[in-house]
Amino acid sequence: MDTANKQFFIIIGRSGAGKGTQAELLKKYLEDKGHEKVVHTTTGGGFRELIERDNYAARLSKELTNNGVLNPEFLAIWNWSNIFINTLTGNETVILDGAPRRLVEVTALHSALSFFQYHHPIVIYLDAPESESLTRLKERGRVDDQNEEGTKLRMKWFDEDVLPVVDYYSRDPHYRFIHVNGLKSPEEVHQELVEKLSQLG
User: Fold this and answer.
1) 176 pLDDT band (50/70/90 cuts)?
2) Domain contains 2
3) 5-19, 55-69, 138-152: which has the minimum mean pLDDT?
4) Residues of the domain holding 82
5) Bridging pattern class, strands 8-13 and 38-42
6) Residue 3 domain-assigned?
7) How confident is the model at residue 166 (pLDDT cuts 50, 70, 90)?
8) Per the structure, how many domains does the chain have?
């Protein structure tokens, strides 16, 4: 099994910053560069699947999600852990979109990356201001984006919970950190990202 070229990418940004779009563009770029198996894992998608279930946990999570409240750490860790366990076979390049969202998740994710033998992960921070993110959320038309109070709460917990994660990754030498201007068009953001990836060597 050839695992020498597998990589792990973590994409972090506000709701509406374009994480999913950039993850898909990065996936295509990596495939064009010769990565045979590139997996785009989105924690938001995992939560949306959870809240469609008919059980107690799903109902509680749906209420939090619809009100713009950050789901508890154990659910977030269960979410991406479950995806990794059921998806990875050993040689995939992974793009994780939307996690970690709290510092406690960073430690758990680090243990997972060590377990699955991913070395020197690349963290991509899509930096978009709150005003632009709110505008994009209104435009994309998803049900959970229509609650204005909820979307403002998501901006608040990004500042309080996620930005400390960004700061941590920017200073930890184990991770390679890329700061990208998320205010540009998707094509321009992707171009900046590719240029900065090439500079990593």
Assistant:
1) very high
2) no
3) 138-152
4) 8-200
5) unpaired
6) no
7) very high
8) 1
25 neighbors 186 (Cβ within 8 angstroms): yes
For the stretch 189-201, what's the b/e string if a residue is b when 16 or more beta carbons lie within 10 angstroms of its beta carbon? Answer: bbebbeebbeeee
Least confident of 16-30, 33-47, 176-190: 33-47
CATH number reported for the structural domain that contains residue 190 in this entry:
3.40.50.300
For residue 77, being part of any structural domain is answered with yes
pLDDT at position 151, please?
Answer: 67
Report residue 113 as tokens: 């990356």
Q: What are phi and psi of 125, to 5 degrees?
A: -105, 115
Average pLDDT estimate for 90-99: 93
Looking at the predicted structure, is the pLDDT value of residue 131 above 70? no
Give phi and psi for 66, each to the nearest 5: -65, -25
Contact 177/125 with Cβ under 8 angstroms? yes
Residue 1 lies in a domain: no
CB 123 within 8 A of CB 169: yes
For 171-175, the CB contacts below 8 A with 24+ separation are 174/110, 174/120, 174/121, 175/10, 175/120, 175/121, 175/122, 175/123
Rounded distance, CA 70 to CA 79, Å? 13
